[in-house]
Amino acid sequence: MRTEVLLPQWGMGMSEGTVVGWLKKVGDEVTEDEPLAEIEAEKVTETLEAPETGKLVEILVEAGETAKVRTVLAIIESE
């Protein structure tokens, strides 16, 4: 099963966020709620957690890039 990792909306006024850095790389195993990336939004850096246990198979928004809320940032594949 493929799970999309979306950029969440942490605050009412948040419309976009910038990926500061990925804490995992493609091919790494991740567990649900494990820190996956750091996102700067509304002048605060938040930690994006994995929504599912599995393998990080694709990163769609690289570090330094900005994306709108609900954009797919990465894909996790699980059995």
Compile the SSE list and pairings.
Elements: E1 2-6, E2 16-22, E3 29-30, E4 35-41, E5 44-49, E6 54-59, E7 66-68, E8 72-77
Order of helices and strands: EEEEEEEE
- The assigned structural class equals mainly beta
The gross shape turns out to be globular
**Secondary structure tally, helices:** 0
Number of strands: 8
Helix percentage: under 10%
Ends distance:
6 Å
What kind of sheet is the major sheet? Answer: 4 strands, antiparallel
Explain what this protein looks like in three dimensions.
- The protein is mainly β and 79 residues long.
- Helices cover 0% and strands 53% of the residues.
- The chain contains no helices and 8 strands.
- It has strands at 2-6, 16-22, 29-30, 35-41, 44-49, 54-59, 66-68, 72-77.
- A 4-stranded antiparallel β-sheet has the order 1-8-6-3, with no helix packed on it.
- Strand 4 and strand 5 (44-49) form a beta hairpin.
- The relative contact order is 0.37.
